Task: inverse folding
């Protein structure tokens, strides 16, 4: 009989998201990992940098285990940092530097997770006062959500760069199909979207009257 281990389960899902984020960088140039591919500048290396900073805050500062205890934090981790500075990498910040920081953040976070019970109390100073008191369980769930959300962003950004997709390195979770199949699939979706738009523009609807229902109970 399998013994339940909630902490191990939560950490496994968190680690899956972490590894997926880094996998999305594989095989890309310095330019491609930094390219802003949305109007708000979303880029792959910036996503890694952001999630690293988030882990350092939630599993470090929140539980009285600051990561930057003996060394000064980087400029983008300070309270007076410019807006969005943790969402992109400067030309001087190397891939190795940011990925290395993320991996060190994992180790620090895993130390917090191993040391504390799931019901251990922490405080998130940047949350509204009425919500600041949290448990380790709460923060683990929050960080799984945060990491997997950004892994999804990274999946879409990577597809825009070179067409590579997949849930994780060991299981892409994609239906079988070559380039021609996917092009046909995309064309089918485009046709459906245009057809729906045409119906909307012409005032077509699926209300009771257009469906032949006259309201008499027939």
Result:
């Amino acid at each position: 009989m399998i013994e339940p281990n909630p902490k191990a389960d939560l950490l496994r899902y968190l680690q899956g998201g972490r590894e997926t984020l880094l996998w999305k960088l594989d095989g890309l140039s310095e330019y491609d990992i930094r390219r802003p591919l949305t109007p708000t500048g979303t880029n792959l290396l910036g996503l890694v940098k952001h999630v690293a900073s988030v882990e350092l805050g939630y599993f470090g500062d929140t539980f009285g285990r600051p990561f930057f205890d003996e060394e000064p934090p980087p400029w983008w981790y300070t309270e007076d940092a410019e807006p969005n500075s943790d969402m992109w990498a400067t030309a001087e910040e190397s891939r190795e530097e940011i990925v290395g920081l993320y991996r060190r953040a994992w180790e620090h976070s895993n130390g917090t997770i191993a040391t504390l019970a799931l019901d251990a109390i922490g405080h998130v100073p940047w949350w509204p006062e009425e919500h600041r008191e949290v448990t380790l369980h709460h923060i683990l769930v929050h960080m799984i959500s945060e990491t997997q959300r950004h892994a999804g962003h990274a999946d879409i950004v990577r597809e825009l760069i070179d067409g590579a997709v997949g849930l994780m390195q060991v299981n892409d979770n994609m239906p079988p199909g070559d380039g021609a199949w996917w092009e046909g699939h995309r064309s089918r979706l485009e046709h459906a979207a245009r057809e729906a738009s045409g119906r909307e523009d012409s005032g077509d609807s699926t209300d009771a009257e257009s469906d032949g229902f006259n309201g008499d109970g027939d």
Helices lie at 6-23, 30-34, 44-59, 95-115, 136-162, 179-201. The longest strand covers residues 121-123. Strands lie at 121-123, 133-135. Residues 207-218 have pLDDT under 50 and may be disordered.
